[in-house]
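Course assignment 3, question 2. Fill in each field.
Student: A.L.
Task: Predict the tertiary structure for the chain below.
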Amino acid sequence: MPSQLISSIILLSLLIAIVFAVPITVGAVLQYWARLHRLNLLQHVADDLCFKIQQATLIMDFPPVGEATVRYVVEPPFLMGKEYYGTGFCEAGFLTLTLACKDGLTASAKTMVPTTFVWVDSTFVSNKNPMVVVQKQANGTISGWFESSFLFKLTQTGSCEVESGCTWK
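Answer field:
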């Protein structure tokens, strides 16, 4: 009988360990997967923005194109429920965009731009209806920056009010 008691105690302690270890392990794996997925989404948004800016600057650099302004809405406003931020800088014909989440995830994308392109120091917050603006001036200079427009919401009375928003330039 003592051997059955000892084996029962061993099996019971093993069962208790499994009951605690499995949910902890599953939680850690899911958390890792969610973080990795959010990083991939952040990188996709950065690459997409660089591609759009590159397209706009290359078209505007064509001589027959006069003064013009192009605005691209930055989407999505949240990555798996988290807002993100974006900054950019341009040097030596390359534009680098860096997107970051509050939890420390960052993604960068780099693209070639014409030598006439100037990046205006600006930042955006994803949940403030941000846009990338690319503009060609009469002198041929092409500039780009992030901008957030005002968000409006309808009230219960049917009137419209400003919810939030500002412009960085």
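Instructor remarks: Residues 150-155, 158-169 have pLDDT under 50 and may be disordered. The first strand starts at residue 68 and ends at 73.
Grade: pending
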